[in-house]
Amino acid sequence: MISPKKLRAFWSVHPDAERPLRAWLTVVQARRYASPHEVRQDFGSADFLGAWRTVFNIGGMSDILDFTKPHVLRTEAEYDAAILEIERLLDLDPAPYSEEYERLEFLSVLAEAYERAHFRIEGSTPADVVAFMLDQKGMQREDVERLLGGSAAGFFHGERKLPREEIEKVRDLLGIPADLLL
């Protein structure tokens, strides 16, 4: 199955890919391939991954992610290509320590490092973390108020921080790492 939405999303980030992807899609949608041999006749660089997945080299885009010489992800194009490869490898569900498994782990580390550097999302406030965990555990603010006494309201309104003794109590009650409550 070919997802036009994913193709559009890809070429919106990589405008040079739009024309070759549109041409490829036109050819693929017009044909009914009965075998990998027929696919290979039209697309000599196609790679077959199991019975149901084919990877095409469209407009030289396989060069976007070349790890013959492994390196950190430097561009968004490399990051996007790594994410596509991670998704492909996840679909394969590789056996631990196989070549595909090792590649999946390696690309995941690289993608995570790129995300930390380029797509950082600021953390929540301690009060937001406590409120979230209360909800996850089916508890109410009153549970924390009983634990901390009257000082809980000021914490939830962002008017005061929790002292060490209260951090320990909330940590024990909700299982929240203490450093998230500082």
How would you portray this structure in words?
- With 182 residues, the protein is mainly alpha-helical.
- The chain folds into 2 domains: 4-118, no CATH class; 126-181, 434 Repressor (Amino-terminal Domain).
- The protein is 56% helix and 3% strand.
- The protein contains 9 helices and 2 strands.
- The protein has helices spanning 4-13, 18-30, 36-42, 76-92, 99-118, 126-136, 141-148, 152-156, 164-174; strands at 47-49, 53-55.
- It has a two-stranded antiparallel ribbon with strand order 1-2.
- β1 and β2 (53-55) form a beta hairpin.
- It is elongated, with a radius of gyration of 25 Å.
- The mean pLDDT is 80.
Topology:
Blueprint: H1 4-13, H2 18-30, H3 36-42, E1 47-49, E2 53-55, H4 76-92, H5 99-118, H6 126-136, H7 141-148, H8 152-156, H9 164-174
Antiparallel strand pairs: 1-2
Helix pairs in contact: 4-5
Concise synopsis of the structure shown:
The chain is mostly helical and 182 residues long. It folds into 2 domains: 4-118, no CATH class; 126-181, Orthogonal Bundle (434 Repressor (Amino-terminal Domain)). Helix content is 56%, strand content 3%.
Instruction: Report the span from N to C terminus.
Output: 48 Å
Radius of gyration: 25 Å
Largest sheet: 2 strands, antiparallel
Instruction: Give the spatial strand order of the biggest sheet.
Output: 1-2
Order of helices and strands: HHHEEHHHHHH
Question: How much helix, percentage-wise, in residues?
Answer: 55-70%
- Counting helices, strands and paired strands, the structural category is mainly alpha
Rounded average pLDDT: 80
Shape: elongated
- Portion in strands: under 5%
Number of strands: 2
Low-confidence stretches: none
Tally of structural domains: 2
Question: What's the number of helices?
Answer: 9
InterPro entries: Toxin_HigB
GO molecular function: endonuclease activity; RNA binding
Protein name: HTH cro/C1-type domain-containing protein
GO cellular component, one term: toxin-antitoxin complex
